[in-house]
Request: fold
Amino acid sequence: MDQSKTVYENNQAINERVPTGIAGLDEILQGGLVARRAYLLRGNPGNGKTTVGLHFLTTGAACGEQTLFITMGETEGQIRHNAASLGFDLSDVKFLDLAPSPDFFSQMQSYDIFSPADVERDPTTERITTEVERLKPTRVFVDAMTQFRYLSSDDFQFRRQVHSFLRFLVDNGATVIFSSEASPAQPDDDLQYMSDGIIVLENDTNTRTISVTKFRGSDFISGKHSMRLSNRGMEVFPRLLPISEIRQEFASELIPSGIPEFDELTHGGLERGTITIITGPTGVGKTTVGMQFMKEAAGRGERSVIYTFEEWSQMLIRRSQSIGIPVESMVNRGILSVVQVEPLRYTPDEFARMVRKDVEENGAAIVMIDSISGYRLSVRGEELVRHLHALCKYLQGKGVAVVLINEIEDVVGQFRVSDIGISYIADTIIFLRYLELRGELRRAIGVLKKRLSDFQKTMREYEITRYGLKVGKPLNELRGILTGIPEWDETGDRR
Amino acid sequence: MGIKPRILTIDRNQRNLELLNQFLGKEGYETLPMTTLSDLAKILEHPEKLGLALVDISGFDRSIWEYCEQLSNKGIPLLVVAPQQLANIRQEGLSHGADGVLFKPLVVKELMSLIRSLIREDSNE
Reply:
């Protein structure tokens, strides 16, 4: 019976979460840190360790909790000054400043007769003990724990000291985050074993990431998540996890293009909750074809969003306007959003969060990403397919018809669906081609794949006029269209 | 047990001297701290009450060895503290009458056991 009680109490304890104050991080941690445990915060200089600590402490202080910042490097004054410039209110946060005072530098204070471990340990321990017992803080941030290493005569002593120090804090009711300054010469492996959880801050090739590598007693979203340090502190953008999303019930109805000939090709249009790739060479009209669906959706009062990575939104609006798609009035009616995305500014996780926020708050029938190559820029070397997959599957789960614009580099020549290897993701592939016909450049549209329904296997010629997209009759009499230089089919020449 | 004999401590660095005396004080020894050779010269005139001398040679010139010899000649056990681990310093210290040469930073246990053995030996005589 006693045993079941402890299990129950443990469950209670695990359910009690301490939010870090960084929304995205709390999401990754599934609600926050488990209360009364000690967490290791790792990261190189400048990766935001202190910022995490400031969020953690001020969040507690704002709720009237007693919070304590134990600093062993930066002075209290410096930290307060920097925090103020980031907009943190540290007025209720208590400090224990164990940083060396300036007179330490002068002859009088420096010593070499004993090792620092023998000289400083006792007074330091005493100050910490007194302060913790006086304040009984519920949140403690120690910056940086590795400094204690110099107060220990050997590794064994250090381990024991850190262990008992953390126990002491936790037993006094605190949830602890302690940072570490690890270097190849002085790894912090021992600290990693001692902690109840590990949060890692990294900065590789200009992309800041945060990841949780250990979290005792709780699930968490694994992997690296984008993070941004700005003058408002830290923002975390958790990775999208399509699997964890509850698949919403949505009507598997069709979104037609509004052009009868085109809809014949697709047997009615695009289904909700599917992914369509519109592929073709430059200037062939991929964006226009995608917009055609949005125009039709807008006619029925449904909202669409275009994320344009390549074109200025003003240009896109003007261009669409000139070919009979009233983008301007659609935007004014709030039924279309044209979001211009500067690819180099966002990481895939940040972009995903932006899309997600918009879809969840405003709803959308069609989301178009123009184009995959632009999106690829923002991925910058990370796995393009994985990020795109996650984003598309998420949108799919929300019942959105996703349109991806894919540019093929060759204008004519051997037909390829995509240069990137993402065609597996698509439920529907619509391709656009240039044709050379009697020395004239013409265009053809066709459907290559459609998972949810049958489709017309022949291609059709189309034109983009100032009245919009005009799709012609099936090109039955041509063969070799996919090579880009078709020939008249001898058996069926009707011209 | 009687009163523990006094320990002469000499160090150019004030903070070092403070720490050393603090430490010895905690162990129950009375100390006679000084930072200059002239103070040391004065003491050498009446060395009766000294149980041990602890000399940190860093910062002094070679004349410190003469004083070491004098202390040793007066029968005062002598521990020399040297800044770095150099073989010839150990030799030189021992040749000038030191009973032991220690290198900084001092290891507390080692220091204590040396002091105890030197003082006990002395009092047994």
In short: Chain B has one domain: 6-124. The longest strand of chain B covers residues 50-56. The mean pLDDT of chain B is 85.
